[in-house]
Amino acid sequence: MRRAGRSSRTAIGQVAVFFGLLLLAGGRTLAQTETAPPAYPYGGVEDAQRYREWRSTRVALNFASPVDFRSKRFVHLANLRAARFDSLVDCYLTTFEAAADLWGASFRQRAQFTYANFLAPANFRHAVFHDQAEFDRTSFWKRADFAYATFYQDANFHEAKFYNRADFSHADLRGRSDFSQTLVGDRLDFSNATILNRLDLREAEFDPNAEADFSLATIADTLLLGGSQIQRFDFLQAKLLPAAELAPPDAGASSTGQPMRTAPGAKIILCNPVRLSIQPEKFKFIALNDTLSYFVKKDIIELLKREDFAADKSAQFELDYIFARSTLYQKVSDDYEEYALLHPTRCWRFIYNATMGLGYRPFRMIYFMGFLVLAYTLFYMIRIPARINAYISKTFGPYRSLKSESGDEVRLGMKETLINCLYFSALTFFAFRLKGEYLTFFNPREKNSVISEWLVGFLVYILFVTLSKSGSIWHNLKSILFG
After folding, report:
1. Would you list the domain boundaries of the chain?
2. Given Cys at both, which of 64, 111, 416, 450 links 412, Cβ 3.0 to 4.6 Å?
């Protein structure tokens, strides 16, 4: 009797396991073979039985045809975790009353969430957008999680509303990202993100306690900052990269021999007054929007000098240089207007900038001096090489290799003549006092050429001293000697 009861219970258990596996396999087959249902997960009817049965099970779905969630309302958890969308996903005016779980979702075509309304947390963590991601004018009432997401094409968040934290940490932004005129209620987190294309934050509106975090972010393209409010941006730990060659968008393309993409390099363009936390050595990445008026640019620089770098004279000096470089050819007016191409002011500023960096980089004059010395060396080589050799011979003694010499001319080889002309040109250019031998040795025509070089060199010394900005000489000397 015991053995018979035992065998019957075993048979019943095996039958139960068999039907359980059959039900599970049938459910998986239904979930995997159904492509693009009209309104998954509701099956066309809100709160359908199939959704209640499967909403807690992590089943990755494949949608081969376009998915139309346009103007739908998700009253329960939208479980699209790890789903693959091979065609257009249309969530225009869609409302998600419960959480939207798109963790690891793959959007092969355009993903449109324009005017979507996320009343609960939106989880796009690890999502991959192969085409355009359109979230313009979308409202996120709870946390918007795009951490570790990858955007291969443009990410449009224009006029989006983040009433809670917007997390883009560790995200990979390879296309253009538009966050202009967004509303940020808590924290806009780009920490550890990789920004390889333009990121636009113009006219973004931050709540008083909101902030934008770029700590440890890798930036290789342009950031546009500044809006109606004065907002602080922290770049102390950001990695600002110069122009560089980057890997292709496809992670596996590097082994296929495809050409590398070129990044223009990091640049922080200020479009309105902002507050910055940044090291002075990163000022080379800061620029002012060219289309701004002269006085708006001045207000931006004055705010930074007054609020963020009031105690750092070196940083204030660099900020003045940024302003001078931005207004190089710009007139002092309320409108953006430049001087004509051949205007005397424009020509003078071009020369001033090329030779002395508008007075903020006076040691550029060294390159100009070297050019002048070489130019006069070439002139002497062509016009009076034998006379230069004769002057060197008269001053330092006759050449022993020559059996006979004339006091007026000495002819040597090309190498010796070049060395003599270079030495004579440098000696004349860098001399503070004109040598009397020049007046007696050279004839009037030669004398005019030699004295002209000495006058040019003397004029360069005067310009170097008088046109250098206050503190610039020692500042640049320290940079040259100590880096």
Report:
1. 146-249+260-338, 365-466
2. 416
